[in-house]
Amino acid sequence: MLGKIELMTIFVAVAEEQGFAAASRRLNISPPKVTRAVAMLEEHLSVKLLTRTTRYVRVTDAGIRYLEDVKRILNDINLANEAAQGINSIPQGSISITAPVLFGQQFVLPSVLEYLNSYPKTEINTVFLDRVVNLLEEGFDVGIRIGDLEDSSMRAKKVGSVRLSLVASPEYLAQYGIPQHFCALNNHSLIETRAGSLNPEWKFIQNGKIVHQPISSRLRVTTNQAAINAAVAGFGISRVISYQVANELAQNKLKFVLEEFEQPPLPINIVHREDRISSAKIRSFIDLLAESLLKNTTLN
Fold first, then answer.
1. DSSP state letters, the chain
2. Domain 4-85 - what CATH class?
3. pLDDT (tens digit per residue) in 110-160
């Protein structure tokens, strides 16, 4: 007879892998055992958790809600077991971390490598994405958020701030002039980035009020790095987050424009799921990363 915890674990694997065979490989158990476990769980709950066809397995609406609760329960159980076994004293085990692409590459990865070198029994999965990630639903322990926080279920530690700015190359500005007001932007070649979670509208502050400025971009790209490259090449003016172009600014490849109309700085937070039991591996990594980010002058 399979226990409830084992049934839950198997259900999570099937839901995340979207298949019974894939779940059996992940858990290293037989496919019939996986099928039997899901059937037992659905019978016990009197709820259909999965929709099965010959081609795929999908979680039902009821299954989605149950999946979120089960993942939280299993995480609490793992943390409780670690505490009881004394694992909390020395960091070990795996951590999943997410951050914006350029931020992760420039500022998070060095701390990840330092952490792994300091604690040989740990392993880290990093996923750098230019979108807001739901830590609980997508199974991440720690995330970096740039901008105001909306999710009150997360614990957060502020580690800096950055500017949402307009930049252009010195060569472009010498040829086409420096705009003195955001109303003049549509007389310039604009580079629009459609990446990340930032509002696509270009907003400015004038006389203490937020002004929405419609733009007509000549170039639209889907990555921040592509927009930066185009601006450095002298194609036009692009909107970036200040940390993304720190090197280009220092090397005089790009210059800020319309600084006096910028919105207030955006906060940078390390966020993590709120657990009743705090894991040493998570605490240790957050402390290390926070110390590194707080002393970085690019982010303050």
1. ---HHHHHHHHHHHHHHTSHHHHHHHHTS-HHHHHHHHHHHHHHHTS--EEE-SS-EEE-HHHHHHHHHHHHHHHHHHHHHHHHHTGGGS--EEEEEEE-HHHIIIIIHHHHHHHHHH-TTEEEEEEE-SS---HHHHT-SEEEEES----TTEEEEEEEEE-EEEEE-HHHHHHH---SSGGGGGGS-EEEE--SSS-SSEEEEETTEEEEE----SEEESSHHHHHHHHHTTS-EEEEEGGGGHHHHHTTS-EEESGGGPPPPEEEEEEEE--SS--HHHHHHHHHHHHHHHT-GGG-
2. mainly alpha
3. 999 999 999 999 999 999 998 888 887 788 899 999 988 876 667 899 999
Say which CATH topology domain 164-261 has: D-Maltodextrin-Binding Protein; domain 2 (3.40.190)
| 217-272 per-position pLDDT tens digit | 999 999 999 999 999 999 999 999 999 999 999 999 999 999 999 999 999 999 98
